[in-house]
Amino acid sequence: MKVSFLIHNAYGIGGTITTTFNLAGALAERHDVEIVSVLRHREHPNLTPHPDVGLRALVDLRREKDHPLHRRPAGVFPSAEYRHHQYSELTDLRIAEYLEGTDADVVVGTRPGLNVHLALQAPQRVARVGQEHLTLDNHPPALRTALRRAYRRLDVLTTVTEADARAYRRKMRLPGVRVEALPNSVPDPVLPAADGSAKVVIAAGRLVPVKRYDLIIEAFAQVVAERPDWQLRIYGKGEEEDRLRARIEALGLWNNVFLMGAATPMEAEWVKGSIGAAASNFEPFGMTIVEAMRCGLPVVSTDCPYGPGEIIRDGEDGRLVPVGDSRAFGAALLDLVRDDELRRRMGEAAVDHARRFAPGPVVAQAERLLEEAVAARSGGRRGIPGRGGMRHALLGQGHAARDLAHAAASGALRTVRGRRR
Amino acid sequence: MSTARTTELRTDCCADPDGRITFRLRLPTATRPRLLLVLRPKKGRPEETSLILDLEPCDDRGHVRAVLEPRPVLAEGRWDAYLLRGPDADRERLRPGLRDLRLLVGGDTRGRTSPVTVRVPYTTVDGFLALRTWRRAAHVEAGPLDLADGTMTVSARLHGAELSEDAAVELRPRGGGGTGRVYRVRPAEEGAFSFTVDCADLVGETAGPRIWDAFLRPAADAPPVRIGRLFDDVADRKGVYVYPRVTVGGAAVRPYYTVDNDLAVEVTGTG
């Protein structure tokens, strides 16, 4: 089977890039695999792809950023997509040419706008697999409307959580499209797991508001009041750094809470802790939660949409607490801080349970999905027979009407604002 | 400047509290490979001090391993790590892989004897593997630092010397000139003690930043011992252990750790 991954920019940094490189590399053991990057802005990617995975770009910004067609807004890539401003008539054209000429059996799109290209422009012979790394409910209504029209032409749509897959099945009528959750995978750790003895809580990620590191710091004040020999280490960089520093100073926590800066790989840092912490308001998946668990840490996390609740089993391998509640977060941390035996037991359970996110099972599922989509295409069928029936169709239409109304309203608002300028 | 080739080989290492460091990398084809550690000389000076360890096969998947034992004691400084693939091979600078320093994290609750030695593997600013080392006849390990009502109180512990009844902390102006400030210590058990500095003492009449370095005199006639924080996995503490400013009149007083992890106090503005 020949597999082609279509990605926004393989030369940058981020979860989608990591996951795509991992999956492509694993599939390359048995299949012919390439990664096609719409944009390229530097010579080498930050991650090194598997030696058997081909990598090429469609638009090289180092040479073509002033191309006349690149100055005109994209028409195929939906205008409501988050990255529309980086797309153009040039990307429309190059993506269309790539899809028309591809000899792949299956093309995998890795973000909504590229899935739209795939749905509308891939030749009949090519199986079309769209991946969603964000969530339907968090997409703006205008984007949902654009996706609703296009996604029915896909063979398979994968989400990173079951909850998001359910949202697609319930709120979009996608007859004949197989909608399935395919979680991100986290490589097998090399180091021995943490043994639960360290008096260290660890959090990691980009320091941005949605991750709510401020809430973890506030919650940790409760821990310090009772156990001043514990510390919290926050790894990562970002716009929130100064605000978080100010929060640490205001709460008098400079002997216990540390902004460690970025660390790659995180594995050697996770094993220095005995509890992981994640307090996001919104988390489509929750890669760092899985990383921490695979390193032997029970994780205290907010139960935000959608990832954490599908990764952590509350009370078994970690704790789930309400979003935005620092008292509850602090209390959950303290339960683990006070009880060495509980921490050790939950840490062992975390290692055990998080194995389902190892590359082995995730790649096997992806391979099966791709092979079935290719087989269905070549047999003149698509995906699996549509689900739902009348009730499902009506429900889907209700959501469609609401999104259309919202999109129209916000469009009108934009027009009004536009005139005012 | 070194003109050595660089290699993309990632070297894992593992450290224990006694100072033992185990290096491990995958090197299936080399003959008699060795690990070279070179003490980074002062700017403009030639390299003088180095150490070579044999890399021995340690599994059947091509990994080799070298163990740096706690003795001999290494000179204080930064040691860059290189690979020598064979007897006549040029040295290749090594990149870090996983640095397993978990056994260093808890600090050290034992009393240390003289000389006090510490080794922490770290990643240089330009991304290479190096070893940070300290070697001191005696050492004062700083602990929690409290700031309240214009004062700074530090809890600490003396290692490698005896704390006598007339022990005192001295803050000395960096670069000489001016007189130091002396503070009595409140002794606790096993060499532990604390001291309190009134931040207003450190504010002078001249503008411009001024830095005070912190020492302990264990006894009236004993040489001064630097106060610092060395006993964990943090090789560069300056940007991580960050303390708030204390405002005294028009001046700002801020304790911090130097690039050598020693305790200092910076004063900006005047009283």
Descriptive report:
- The complex is a heterodimer of chains A (421) and B (271).
- Chain A is an alpha/beta fold and 421 residues long.
- Chain A has two domains: 236 residues, Rossmann fold; 157 residues, Rossmann fold (3-Layer(aba) Sandwich), CATH 3.40.50.2000.
- Chain A contains 15 helices and 13 strands.
- In chain A, helix 1 links the parallel strand 1 and strand 2.
- The longest helix of chain A has 31 residues.
- Chain A is globular and about 65 Å long.
- Chain B is mainly beta and 271 residues long.
- Chain B has two domains: 132 residues, Immunoglobulin-like (Sandwich), CATH 2.60.40.10; 130 residues, Immunoglobulin-like.
- Chain B is 0% helix and 50% strand.
- In chain B, strands 11, 12, 13, 14, 15, 16, 17, 18, 19, 20 and 21 form an eleven-stranded mixed sheet that branches. In chain B, strands 1, 2, 3, 4, 5, 6, 7, 8, 9 and 10 form a ten-stranded mixed sheet that branches.
- In chain B, a hairpin with a 4-residue loop joins strand 15 and strand 16.
- The termini of chain B are far apart.
- The model of chain B has no long low-confidence stretch (mean pLDDT 92).
- Classes of the chains: A alpha/beta (421), B mainly beta (271).
- At the A-B interface, strand 10 of A face strand 8 and strand 11 of B.
